[in-house]
Design a protein that fits this description.
The protein is an alpha/beta fold. The chain has two domains: 38-130, Immunoglobulin-like, CATH 2.60.40.1220; 148-490, Alpha-Beta Barrel (TIM Barrel). Helices cover 30% and strands 17% of the residues. It contains twelve helices and 15 strands. The strands form three sheets. Strands 8-9-10-11-12-13-14-15 form an eight-stranded parallel barrel, surrounded by five helices. A four-stranded antiparallel β-sheet has the order 1-2-5-4, with no helix packed on it. Strands 3-6-7 form a three-stranded antiparallel β-sheet, with no helix packed on it. Helix 10 (391-407) runs parallel beside helix 11 (436-456).
């Protein structure tokens, strides 16, 4: 019996010893998480189309990552400066600032800067990209004449001779002497000195808005005296070596006398006859003169931004096509003259930009057509931001230009911002009565607009108030808002 007890104890002891050996300290440790590995980057590695400026960079790993504050300074950058470095879950994010076009940028994260949650270090990683470089258009179109894209570069910065030949009103009457309209909205008779002043300041283009309907008879013939005065003012700009845009202005718009309208009640024959007369008068002018088919064309409901019935956009397209056809049919230098078509209301919303059909040009190629929009944006910023041009305002313009590039510029059609200024609701604006500080804010706005035009190969024409009222006359000339004018021209120096 004792032997059996002894044997049982012996076997139990052996089992205990064997279990202890199996579960002892010789068992290998559980494996640590593998080192983080990069799975994607934004911008993509090797990209050559990154927009200059403040570039948002994100490097995404395959697992949650950490980084100590002391390691941030170890991240290296050439061609850019980095800031606002942080991690969030599996992403390393920071801002790389590079203002130069065509700049090669390399960002290197050394080994050990990034770790997983167990402290296992990631390998070194380099991100390379190049900022977008503006490609200047070929100055010569396939037909040997100056292209619209090159003309647009040559004419900016620009200014609008507003509230002058575009003035209208029943109280003036029809077929009156030209000066009655020219001075009806508070402006003096235009003289050659005004264009000389703009040329000397550094401006290269003048937009001459003209309203025609009170100078046309029942058959659509334009009064000779009116056509002569229009030509005289165009010559003031052309004789300074400047570019000039001549248009059909308040024959469109939000008033009952408008007849160039986006509706089924089209007067296309009358419209074509008007452009035939204008084009014939200016047939021999060279590339410094451009024609703009229509200003802010609205539907009969006079809806801004976009019509509630998007089929009205097709009526804009009918006018655009008829305009190009009528001008080209007059021959001479009009065969290849650079022409401008606009969106509905000259707006830049997605619907109206998508809805604009660029006419097929009878000249045989599309190199002589530009697109125009207007921008008093962000609308009412002078009221919303208390007459202060903010970073939010600037970002709005950047977004607008990205949209313009998508719809037109990338497709070979240069863009003209035919009007821009500080106008808001209730005609609140920065003008001659504003403080110097407020005028400085208008200058910041204009500077941003023109820097974006320069970046995207666009042109801009400030609406009116740089020189306004009696300040335009030679005897009393002065810059109404010289701070703003200087902000504009300094962009191009």
């Amino acid at each position: 019996m004792n032997k059996l007890i002894f044997l049982a104890f012996f076997l139990l002891a052996a089992l205990v010893l064997n279990f202890s050996a199996c579960s002892g300290s010789d068992e290998p440790d559980a494996p640590k998480l593998a080192a983080p590995a990069v799975v994607s980057t934004s911008p993509e590695n090797g990209s050559t189309t990154v927009e200059p400026g403040a570039i948002s960079v994100t490097i995404t790993y395959d697992k949650t990552i950490t980084m100590t504050a002391s390691d941030i300074s170890k991240i290296q950058a050439t061609g850019a400066t980095i800031s606002n470095v942080r991690t969030m879950s599996a992403a390393l994010m920071f801002t790389a600032t590079c203002a130069e076009e065509g700049q090669a940028v390399t960002i290197t994260i050394p080994a050990g800067v990034i770790k997983n949650s167990d402290g296992v270090a990631a390998a070194a990683h380099s991100l390379n990209f190049t900022t977008r470089k503006t490609e200047l258009p070929n100055p010569v179109a396939p037909d040997g004449h100056e292209s619209a894209a090159q003309a647009v570069l040559n004419m900016t910065p620009g200014w609008n001779l507003g509230n002058t030949l575009d003035s209208y009103g029943d109280w003036i009457g029809d077929h009156q002497e030209p000066y009655r309209y020219e001075t009806a909205w508070g402006q003096p008779i235009t003289d050659a000195h005004l264009m000389q002043a703009f040329k000397e300041k550094g401006f290269k283009g003048i937009r001459v808005p003209v309203t025609w309907y009170q100078h046309m008879d029942d058959q659509g013939n334009v009064d000779e005296a009116w056509m002569n005065r229009v030509q005289e003012i165009v010559d003031y700009a052309i004789n300074q070596g400047m570019y000039c845009i001549l248009n059909v202005h308040h024959d469109t718009g939000a008033h009952d006398a408008a007849w160039v309208v986006a509706s089924s009640t089209l007067q296309l024959d009358r419209y074509a006859k008007l452009w035939t007369q204008i084009a014939t008068r200016f047939m021999n002018y060279d590339q410094h003169l451009l024609f703009e088919g229509y200003n802010e064309m609205l539907n009969t409901a006079q809806q801004w931004n976009q019509p509630s019935n998007l089929t009205d956009l097709e009526y804009v397209n009918k006018h655009a096509a008829r305009f190009v056809e009528a001008v080209r049919a007059t021959g001479g230098n009009n065969t290849y003259r650079n022409l401008i078509v606009s969106t509905y209301a000259a707006a830049h919303g997605t619907a109206v930009m998508s809805g604009l059909t660029i006419p097929t040009d009878p000249c045989g190629n599309q190199s002589h057509i530009a697109v125009e929009v207007h921008s008093y944006d962000p609308w009412d910023w002078v009221r919303i931001y208390n007459m202060t041009w903010t970073s939010e305002c600037s970002e709005y313009l950047k977004s607008m230009f990205r949209d313009l590039e998508t719809h037109f510029i990338s497709k070979g059609y240069p863009v003209i911002i035919g009007e821009y200024a500080t106008n808001g609701s209730g005609e609140m604006t920065i003008n001659q009565n504003s403080t110097s500080a407020q005028k400085a804010e208008a200058g910041r706005h204009a500077g941003d607009m023109n820097r974006l035009c320069k970046k995207y190969g666009a042109a801009s024409f400030y609406w009116m108030s740089l020189v306004d009222g009696a300040d335009r006359s030679q005897a009393t000339f002065k810059w109404t808002m010289e701070q703003v004018a200087d902000s504009i021209v300094n962009v191009y120096k």
